[in-house]
Amino acid sequence: MERNVVVRNIPRADPAVIARLGSAGVATVYEAQGRIGLLGPDIAPIQSGARIAGSAVTVESHPGDNIMIHAAVEMVGPGDVLVVAVTGPSIYAMVGDLLATSLRAHGCIGLVVDAGIRDSAELIEMAFPVWSRTIHAQGTVKAHPGSVNVAVSISGAAVDPGDVVVADDDGVVVVRRADAVAVLEATEQRLATEEATRARLESGELGVDFYGLRARLHDMGVEYLDTRPTSAES
Amino acid sequence: MERNVVVRNIPRADPAVIARLGSAGVATVYEAQGRIGLLGPDIAPIQSGARIAGSAVTVESHPGDNIMIHAAVEMVGPGDVLVVAVTGPSIYAMVGDLLATSLRAHGCIGLVVDAGIRDSAELIEMAFPVWSRTIHAQGTVKAHPGSVNVAVSISGAAVDPGDVVVADDDGVVVVRRADAVAVLEATEQRLATEEATRARLESGELGVDFYGLRARLHDMGVEYLDTRPTSAES
Amino acid sequence: MERNVVVRNIPRADPAVIARLGSAGVATVYEAQGRIGLLGPDIAPIQSGARIAGSAVTVESHPGDNIMIHAAVEMVGPGDVLVVAVTGPSIYAMVGDLLATSLRAHGCIGLVVDAGIRDSAELIEMAFPVWSRTIHAQGTVKAHPGSVNVAVSISGAAVDPGDVVVADDDGVVVVRRADAVAVLEATEQRLATEEATRARLESGELGVDFYGLRARLHDMGVEYLDTRPTSAES
Amino acid sequence: MERNVVVRNIPRADPAVIARLGSAGVATVYEAQGRIGLLGPDIAPIQSGARIAGSAVTVESHPGDNIMIHAAVEMVGPGDVLVVAVTGPSIYAMVGDLLATSLRAHGCIGLVVDAGIRDSAELIEMAFPVWSRTIHAQGTVKAHPGSVNVAVSISGAAVDPGDVVVADDDGVVVVRRADAVAVLEATEQRLATEEATRARLESGELGVDFYGLRARLHDMGVEYLDTRPTSAES
Amino acid sequence: MERNVVVRNIPRADPAVIARLGSAGVATVYEAQGRIGLLGPDIAPIQSGARIAGSAVTVESHPGDNIMIHAAVEMVGPGDVLVVAVTGPSIYAMVGDLLATSLRAHGCIGLVVDAGIRDSAELIEMAFPVWSRTIHAQGTVKAHPGSVNVAVSISGAAVDPGDVVVADDDGVVVVRRADAVAVLEATEQRLATEEATRARLESGELGVDFYGLRARLHDMGVEYLDTRPTSAES
Amino acid sequence: MERNVVVRNIPRADPAVIARLGSAGVATVYEAQGRIGLLGPDIAPIQSGARIAGSAVTVESHPGDNIMIHAAVEMVGPGDVLVVAVTGPSIYAMVGDLLATSLRAHGCIGLVVDAGIRDSAELIEMAFPVWSRTIHAQGTVKAHPGSVNVAVSISGAAVDPGDVVVADDDGVVVVRRADAVAVLEATEQRLATEEATRARLESGELGVDFYGLRARLHDMGVEYLDTRPTSAES
C-alpha cells in the first residue's frame, strides 16, 4: 500500500524557461499548452497583482495537519513554489506567517494550497503570494503522515514535483516539466499573435471580420435584423 | 421556435439621465425604483471602486461559447454596457483583455457577465470594469448560435436592450428604459432625503426617534430592561 | 417563551486589555485561548487591512429586518462592536452607510453581521470596518421584533454582550469577557514566542528540527528518499 | 414604473400537446427545442419519480413573502403549474401543505419555486410534486406587493404565463406557448430516433461507429494505442 | 478560560410533552414558538420519512475528532437525541454504524450533527435517523478535548442540554426545555386551526378571502386585470 | 505536449478480490487502506442503496463534451466502472440513458463522473448506478479531443486505468490495482474486528472503556461533573 515518503531531489525546468512562462501569465500559458493543467477557480489568490512561476515542490497532507509542510521546507530551493494537496476536503489554515517566513528563508517564492491559510495581512505585507481555498484561522495539528515530492492532484489538476507552476490573478496553471520548452515556444508565438491582434482591435477592427466569424454565424442560422421583432417571442 | 438574431438598432435612454442614475449608485437606484431589478450577489465586481451606468447591449450565449460577444461588439456604441446572459450555468472565461480592448474601441464602458472572465489583472489595469460570476481562465469555443439585443434574464433580473444598467461595488441594478426618468426623479428625491438624514444621524440623533420606531417596538412587545435577566433563558 | 428585550447596560472588559488583544490579531488570540471562539470563513471582511477589537453589543434580528439594529444604536458606547445575528439564513443588506454613520456617531468602531450589507464603497471610504456574509443591496423591512444585548450565536460562535470581539483580514474571534485577562496573558506569551521563532526561521533553521518533528515523522513511518521511487506507485 | 398586477385570464396551450410533452420528459423536450428553456440544477425535485407538464401560472414575489401565492390560487385552473419567482435570493418556505391543499383544490398539479418549501413529508404523501431551491421551514410574511401572471425569470429561464412547464427528476424546462406544437413535433421525432438508437446500442453497436465519430476523433489527433505509453507523461 | 467538562445529569422535559411535540412536526412547532430555534437547511436528513422528538444530549467537538461522542454515549438515556456541534467547519464522518449501534444501545433515538456521517446505508437500514451536513466517509481522530452536556450552537440555533429537539424531513427545531409546555399548548392550538383551515381550503375556499388578504392587496396597490397589459412593460 | 490517446488494453485486478472489496463498502475499504483514495462528497450517488466495485476505465474529457465517453464504450469490458474526469469544472449532462444503455451492453456496471447526468429516472429504473456532481439536463457537444485509459484526477483522488473503484451511498473510493490484495486483507481483518465490536457495543459496553479512552480524556483535561456548573460560562 501507499508509502509515505519525502523525496530530497527533484528535477527542475530551466530557470530561464520558467521565468518567461511566468511573464506570459496563466491565461496565455493555459491556452498555449492546449487548455490543460488549469486549477479550478476555488483556488484563488489572497492578494491582487502577483504573478509568479516556479518549480513545484509538492506536499500531500492529511486535512487539518501541516506536519508535512514543515518537512517540505527542507526540500525547497530558490525559485520553488510549494504546492499542497490534501487527502480530503479542508479549510484549516495550513500556513501562516511563521511558516511562510521559513519557506521564504529557503528560497520559496509562493504557495498554492487546497485548504485555508491565516495571517493573510502579514503574508500580503511580506509580499509572499498565496493561492488558497479560503482564509480561515482554524488551526492544524502535526499528527498524520503524508508525503513530499510525490505526484499530487489539486483542484482538478495533476502536479508532479518539478513541474512548472504559473500563478497570477486568474488562478494557477501547471506545465509538465517535460513540456516546458515546447509550451514556452507556443506561449511566445501566442503572445506575438495577441499583440498584433490587440493593435487591430484597438483600431476598431471587428473580431467577426478578423476571425472570419460572419460566415459561421450565417451557417448557424443567426439572422441580422435592423430592429427587434414586434412579435411576442424575442 | 426561438430564432437567433442580432438586432442592430436599439433605443437608449437620455445620456444625462443615465449619468445621473450612475452617480447615485446601485443601492439608491434600487430603492428608488421600488426594490426591483437587482442582480443576485453572485455577479460581483472584479475590481473595487468602479461605478458605471450605461445602456444595455444584451447577449444571449451558449455556455462556454463567446461567438455572440464577438457579434455584439459591432452593435455597441459609446456609453453602452455589455450584458451577457448564458443559457446554462457556466464559469468559462467569456471575455479577456483582447475582447475588452475591442469592446472599448467601440465605446463600451463595462461588462456584466453571468460566467467567468480572465486576464483580470489586465482588465483592472486598463480600467475596464467587470461584474462577473467568477475569475477563471477556462477557454471558450465559437460554435453555438445565440442572440444579440434580445430580452435576457441574468441572475434573477430581466434586461431588455437599451435598459439602463447601473453597477458599482454593491452589485448591478437594471432600470427599465421606459422608467428611467421616473426612477431618476425618485432617486434624486431619495438622495436629498438621505443627505438630510445623514446630517441628523451624524449629530447623534437616533433612528428609533427619527423614524418613529419606538412605538412600533413597543407594539411588537419588545421590552427595555436596565440589565440582562438573571434567569437561565435570555 | 422567548421574550424580546433591549438591555441597556452591559459589562465590558478593560479597554486596555481589549486594545492589546486587538493588536495581536485574530489568529494569535484564537490560538492563545485554546482554538475556540472563531467564526466561520463565511463571515469575511469587506475591506482589507482593518484590525479592530471592541466590546460586543449584540443584536438578534429576524432575517431581512433591521429594526433591532436601529434599537441597538442607542445602546452602543465608545469602542463597541455591533454583532448582528439572524434567526434564519439571510443575505439582505442589514446595514448601509446611513446606519453606519449613526453607529459611528455613538462610538461604534465596527460591525460583524451574519447577512449582507450595502453602500460598501461608502463604508470603506468612511473607514467603518465590516465583516459580513455578503455584499448585496437587497433591502430590509422594520416589522419583526428581536433583541439587543442578549446571548447570540453567529457562524458557529456564541457571543454574550460585553464579550471581546477581535476582527481582521483573517476573520473574527470572540473572547469571553471573563476570560479576557487570561487570554491576553496567553496571547502575549504567544507573541513573544512567535517573535523568537520568526527570528530563527528567518535565519534558515528548520521547523522539523526546531519543533522536534523528525522523530515524529520517523515514528509515523515517513521515509526519506534521495529520488522518487521508480515503481508505478508514488 | 413597475405596476403590480394580478392578471385573471391567460392563454394556454392545447392540453393534448401539453400531455404529450409531459410524457417525453425534460431532457428530451429540452433537446428537441434546441437546448433552451432549462432551469438550473439549483431548482430540484423534493420527491423522486414525478413527471408533470402543465400551463404556467406565474407569480413574482418579494423574497420571504407569500401573499402573492395566495392571490394566485384564484387564478389557477385544472392542469396548471404554479411558477414562483422571487425578486431577490431567498430560502424561505413559500409553500407548505395548507397552501398546496388550496392550490390542488383549484386544479394545480405542481409547483416550481425559486425559494424554500416546508411540510415536505406531507407534500410527498399527498403526491403534490414540487421543484424548489431548498427544504426549509423558515416562515414568510404577507406584507409586500408582487404580481400574478406576468413575465418572470427563474433560475436562468424566462417564463410567460401560459407557457408549458415540463418537470421531472432531471429538473424543469419551459416551452414557449407559441412553440408548443412545433416543439412537440420535434420531441416526437426525437423520441422515435432515440428508440431506434436504443435498440442498436442495446445490441452492442458502438456510438463511435453509429454516430460516425471515428473520423472526428482521428481529425482531432486522438491516437489509439494497444497499451499505455511507458514514458512518464500519460 | 473554557473548561472541558462532561456533565452526567441533565434535566429533561416531560416525555409526554416531548412526544406530542414530535407528532406535530418541525414546521408547526417552529411556528408555534414564534419562529425561533430552527437550524439552517444545511443540516438535512439522510433518510426520508423520519420524525423524532427527544431531549438533547449535547456534544461540543473539535472538527474531525469524535472522542467526545464516545464520551457522550455514557450520558445518553432512553429517548435522547444526540446533538453534535463542532468548533470549526467540518465534513468529517463523526458517526458511523458502530457508534450508532452504541448510541442506540443506550436509548438514543437519533442524531443531529454539524459535520459528516458515514455508513449511511447501514444507518438507514437500522432505522437510526440522522440529520447531518453531509455524507462523507472521511475518518476522524480521537485526540482533542471537548465537552458533553454544555450549551452549544449549531447551524444558527442555540441548544442547552435537556432542550427538546424535533426533527423531520423539513429539518430540525429546538424548543427550550423551560418553554416546552407553553410551546406544546401553542402547537396544539395551531394544529387545531390548521385542521379547520385545511378543510375549508380543500373545499375550494380562497385564502385571499379566508385570511382577509384582498384589502391588503388593494392597499399595497395590486391591481386586478382581466388580461395582460399590451404595453411593453409587464 | 500532452497526447490524446485511447488505450485499448488495461490490466485489471482479480475479479474475486474486486467482489470482496465491493461487499465491504466504501467506508471500510477507505479505512483499511489507510484513509486514502476517497473522492470528495461533491460526487454523490443519484440513487440510494447501490453498492458496486469494478475496474476503472478512465476518461479525460473536455468539460461539456462527451465524445471521449463514446470512444470509451469500446474499451469497456464486463465488470468495469467508467470514471470520467473533466479538464475544467462542469455540470453538463455527460451521460443519459442511451449512453448508459450502450455502456451496459458492453459490460459496464456503473459510472462515476465529475459533471452532470440526465435521464436520472430512467437510469434508476434500469438500475445503472451513477455517482455524479449533479443532475442537470444541459447538453454536451462532440467537438474536443480527450483520452481514454490514462491517469486521471477526480474530486481529489487519482485514478489509473485498472484501479479498483468501490462506490456506495457513502461515496466513492479508489484502490490502486497493485494494492488490491493487500487492501482486501486489511479490509477483511477490519470487518472481523468491526463485527466483534458491534456485538459488544450492542450489549451496552461503552467505547470509552472498550477503546481505552478514559485515560486519554483525563490527560486532555476533560472533567466529569455531576451537574452543569452554575457560573455563567459553560
Protein model, in words:
Six copies of one chain form a homohexamer. By secondary structure, chain A is α/β, with parallel strands linked by helices. Chain A is built from eight helices and 13 strands. In chain A, the strands form two sheets. In chain A, strands 2, 3, 4, 5, 6, 7, 8, 11 and 12 form a nine-stranded mixed β-sheet that branches. Chain A has a two-stranded antiparallel sheet with strand order 9-10. In chain A, strand 9 and strand 10 form a beta hairpin. The radius of gyration of chain A is 21 Å and the shape is elongated. The termini of chain A are far apart. The model of chain A has no long low-confidence stretch (mean pLDDT 94). Chains in contact: A-B, A-C, A-D, A-E, A-F, B-C, B-D, B-E, B-F, C-D, C-E, C-F, D-E, D-F, E-F. At the D-F interface, helix 2, helix 6, helix 8 and strand 13 of D face strand 1, helix 3, helix 4 and helix 5 of F. Strand 13 of chain B pairs parallel with strand 1 of chain C, so a sheet runs across the interface.
Can you lay out the helices and strands and say which pair or pack?
Six copies of one chain form a homohexamer.
Chain A: E1 5-7, H1 15-24, H2 26-32, E2 44-45, E3 52-61, H3 67-73, E4 80-86, E5 93-95, H4 97-105, E6 110-117, H5 120-125, E7 130-135, E8 147-148, E9 152-154, E10 157-159, E11 164-168, E12 171-175, H6 180-202, H7 207-210, H8 213-219, E13 223-225
Parallel strand pairs in A: 3-4, 4-6, 5-6, 6-7
Antiparallel strand pairs in A: 2-7, 3-8, 3-11, 9-10, 11-12
